Amino acid sequence: MSLEVLPLSPAIVEKLKTISTATLTTVLLKKGLRNVWLRGTKPLQPDQPRTVGRAFTLRFVPAREDLATPESWSSPISTRAAIEAMPPGCICVVDAMGVTDAGIFGDILCARMHKRGVAGLVTDGVVRDVVGVLGTGLPVWCQGTAAPASVTSLTFVSWQEPIACGGVAVFPNDVIVTDEDGAVLIPANLLDAVLELSAEQENLEAWIMSEVNSGAALPGLYPPNAENKARYQASKKTNL
Length: 240
Known about the structure:
Elements: H1 10-16, H2 21-30, E1 37-38, E2 42-43, E3 51-62, H3 79-84, E4 91-95, H4 107-115, E5 120-123, H5 130-136, E6 140-142, E7 154-159, E8 163-165, E9 168-170, E10 175-179, E11 182-186, H6 191-213, H7 226-238
């Protein structure tokens, strides 16, 4: 639970904020990765800012009555202690096993995360105290809201270890990108390759969209055949 969070340069963060999660899933699909979109991670409110950061992972297991108690909130192994270990710029990714009848965090914990500079919260579970959570300014991607506290259905067990969130394997220091379509994971070891390919994918799709807006038919254009690939390459030279 002491795995160090690697830095992510401001330039990479800003670049990834310009790339949609839809583009990222396409690029990762071309790299052979199909399971990178975290299911159930919907924006808690419309028009949340896109977020980018290293994954800081938390894990819950099913509630056990001798462990999942209000007293456990004061334990050295607690969500409170985990939050104090989160560095600025990380994205808190929480494995709540898809449980939707107990909120993993409320307004006070989200306010503390925001105060510490955490970029966002992503979970396959839900939050509570939703009005207060929205008031903290912390961007949240989750399955919705519930009034009961986490210990009603969940036991918190650890942080900064591999987890499953929304059916996706998430390792500490993987990169998370969120937008209106949800949250996508970029494996840490593929970050440089994905950055390079994503910029090209965005440029290609922008060119295809301009062709569609000009009345072009889709067959041979999307995906582009050899002729249209050549036209696209020529347009890049023209725009230099």
